[in-house]
Amino acid sequence: MSTPSSNPCLDCGACCMSFRVSFYWTEGLDLPDGLSEQVTPHLACMAGTNASSPRCAALGRGSEGPMACGVYESRPSPCREVQIGDDKCTRARARHGLAPLPA
Ligand code: SF4
Ligand code: SF4
Known about the structure:
Structural class: little secondary structure
Number of strands: 3
Distance between the termini: 13 Å
Number of domains: 1
Number of helices: 2
Order of helices and strands: EEEHH
Largest sheet: 3 strands, antiparallel
Shape: globular
Helix content: 10-25%
Strand content: 5-15%
Mean pLDDT: 95
Bound molecules: iron/sulfur cluster
């Protein structure tokens, strides 16, 4: 998800409902209890994203919009890397029947 100011992410959240959001476990140390899951001894993921129909447990918990991230300042690197209109954004939006956005 990209920056929270005046952008379509706040009404979208498709990339938070499409992939396993996994990261080296130490990235999750600042997350509230229950919002990460251990995948392997060294790998964790956002709770809810290691499912056949992924949905991050932090999605919709922010105050900026209906699909705002509830842990925006602590979100792990995969979340910081997705940019509006990039390949991952486009694939996630397509998965949820949403048109691609310009980069
Ligand atoms: S899929 Fe794209 S538009 Fe939707 S939340 Fe993710 S980065 Fe934002
Ligand atoms: S931590 Fe936030 S940005 Fe990352 S997948 Fe969850 S809701 Fe989306």
